[in-house]
Write a structure and sequence with these properties.
The protein has 245 residues and is of the alpha+beta class. The protein has six helices and 15 strands. Strand 11 and strand 12 form a beta hairpin. Helix 1 (3-9) crosses helix 2 (15-23) and helix 1 crosses helix 3. The longest helix has 13 residues, at 226-238. The protein is elongated, with a radius of gyration of 20 Å.
């Protein structure tokens, strides 16, 4: 098994992050620091360490869904000292990290896991995992706006993929819109609305694949069942994620 894949499988981080760790000389195999890609290791025989700490695949894969509150950073650490999503998991023994990102000022559904393979499957662009958001927008949304969003919007010189967009309600110069996308560009939903001259005042992610917030309240979490984790893996690998669009 390739070294970076083994590290990801053990829950160290995503495969991309594990590759960065290797290049930075943080990983050793049988006592020797490795700084190149393509190293093959044999599980149970080769001794793998990250920052001089042994890595094993004995930990049970776990995954939580979290209702992230706004003004919380969706990383394990923040150089600016802002609160991170780890504040919600101080009592959990597993080494968790976020699956993808949710903007600092965006609230809603975020997955946390110790399984690097699961995280990689859910975040890799080729799997097209659908994510549904509710956007609260200042101003009145017109049918022409909805059509532009659905066809794709050019952001930073790149056109977004088609989206599913639905106007939920509109009153007093404020609109509530549900939008489903499968991409994850930085602040994508907010930028899409800005491109049509509308500003998002509040954004909440409601759903990832088949998982939805349900009855979770801001700051609450729920551990996924083995059935749910397996379904996430199966559907991600099959590339047939769908949403309740």
């Amino acid at each position: 098994m390739r070294l970076q894949r083994y590290l990801a499988m053990c829950g160290v981080a995503s495969r991309r992050k594990c590759e960065e760790m290797i290049l930075r000389g943080r990983v050793s195999v049988n006592g020797e620091v490795v700084k190149t890609m393509g190293i093959i290791i044999e599980e149970g025989i080769d001794k793998v360490e990250v920052d001089k700490k042994p890595i094993t695949s004995n930990s049970t894969p776990v995954c939580y869904m979290l209702y992230k509150e706004p003004s919380i950073v969706s990383t394990c650490k923040d150089p600016q000292g802002r609160p991170t999503v780890m504040k919600y998991f101080q009592d959990v023994k597993e080494r968790l990290y976020p699956v993808g990102r949710l903007d600092y000022d965006t609230e809603g559904l975020l997955l946390m896991t110790n399984d690097g393979m699961l995280a990689n499957s859910l975040t890799h662009p080729k799997f097209e995992v659908y994510k549904t958001y509710t956007a609260f927008v200042r101003g009145s949304i017109m049918p022409s706006h909805l059509r532009k969003l659905e066809r794709g919007i050019e952001i930073d010189g790149i056109k977004t993929s088609r989206a599913h967009v639905q106007l939920i309600k509109q009153d007093s110069g404020r609109s509530e819109v549900r939008i489903t996308i499968h991409e994850g560009k930085n602040r994508q939903v907010r930028k899409m609305f800005l491109a049509i001259g509308m500003r998002v005042t509040k954004l909440r992610r409601e759903q990832i694949g088949f998982l939805s917030l349900g009855n979770l309240k801001p700051g609450q979490r729920r551990k996924l069942s083995i059935h749910e984790v397996n379904r996430l893996l199966d559907e991600a690998k099959a590339g047939n994620f769908s949403s309740s669009r």
